[in-house]
Every structure is written in C-alpha cells, then in structure tokens.
Amino acid sequence: MKEFWEERYSAEEYAYGKAPNTFLRAELEHFEPGHALFPAEGEGRNAVYAAQLGWSVEAFDYSSAARQKALRLAQAYQVTLQYQVASIESFPFERKEYDLIALFFVHLPPALRQQLHAACITALRPGGKLLLEAFHKEQLTLNSGGPKQEGMLFSLEELETDFASLSLDQISRQRVILEEGPYHHGPAETVRIRATKHQ
C-alpha cells in the first residue's frame, strides 16, 4: 500500500487538487482555530487550508512524496505545518491534545480503520471536534474515485459503531459532485460526520 501512494504522490500534479474539501471548508467557518490533526493527509490541501485560517496544524502520512508536496504547498501559501512521515500504528495519538481531527477520504481495511477511529477518539480533547468525509459503500457503482473493495468503504452503521462514544452532531450520506483533482472527479456517494467529544 505504501508503494501505491508513493507512486501516486510522486507525480508533479496534485492528485486531489490544491483546494480544500468543500465539507471541511464549510465546517471550519464555524470553529475557533485551535490545534488540529490531519491523519493520512496526503498532499496537504486540507491541512494547508486550516493553517491559513490560523489553526496550529499537525499532519502525517506514510508517503514521503506526499509530505514533500504538502510542505511545498504550505510554503506557497506562507503557512507552517508540522508534517510527519508515519503510519497509523506508529503515530503518537495518545497525547489527547487536539481540538480538531479531520479524516478526509481515509480508506483502510476494517481492523485498521477501527484502530484509527479509536485512536482519534483518544486524541481529542474534551470539547474537541471530529470531521470526516469518505466514500459510502454505494460508491462501488461509480467511477469518481475511491477503493474498489467494499470492505474499505463506509456505511453509516459502521461509523455509528466506531464513534459511539462521541456525540454525533451530524452523520449523513450525501450525493456530491467531486472536483478534487484527477482522482476525485464526478458524482459520488459519500458519508459525512461532525462529532464532539464531551468527556
């Protein structure tokens, strides 16, 4: 899997564009900037946007090519990111210091997905927010992006289970039109979550 992402992110073009995800952009309008984490952030479009709004941003991905492009994008927008090359398993989530964790199109095998989601819950401060957008299982019938294994796509029921300890302020399935670079383009079936950690 690491080799796949290194190859994709080694291209000169930004695989998913340089503009932030539309759901993230809309949500951040309502949040006071704080300390944010972007796991599996790829080429940095969302992390850079948050940094432009005044967030202190950490990000990680296991692709070093992605990190290089993210830091180049941050430099272009004159913002700073703390960006590590790390895996889900190796990143130190246990610090419990994030006001926001943003998961955008992070598609993993089920066991690793559950591990990541549990780690994100641990890493949020009380009052912290979690945002997520990813492909619904019905995305299999469409050609606008995402993995072609149903187990790596999402259902609302799986997400409700994974994030049962958070207050789910929004959980929905959406038909959207993606315009996020060459690999996310066209009509898509996604799920969206905004959740809050209270304890």
From TrEMBL:
- Keywords assigned by UniProt? Transferase
Instruction: Write out the GO MF terms.
Output: transferase activity
Residues covered by the Methyltransferase domain: 42-128
Q: Does the keyword Methyltransferase apply?
A: no
List all membrane-crossing ranges: none
Q: Which Gene3D superfamilies match?
A: Vaccinia Virus protein VP39 (3.40.50.150)
Question: Which SUPFAM superfamilies does this UniProt record tie to the protein?
Answer: S-adenosyl-L-methionine-dependent methyltransferases
> Know the name of this protein?
Methyltransferase domain-containing protein
Question: Where is the organism placed in the taxonomic lineage, from the top?
Answer: Bacteria, Pseudomonadati, Bacteroidota, Saprospiria, Saprospirales
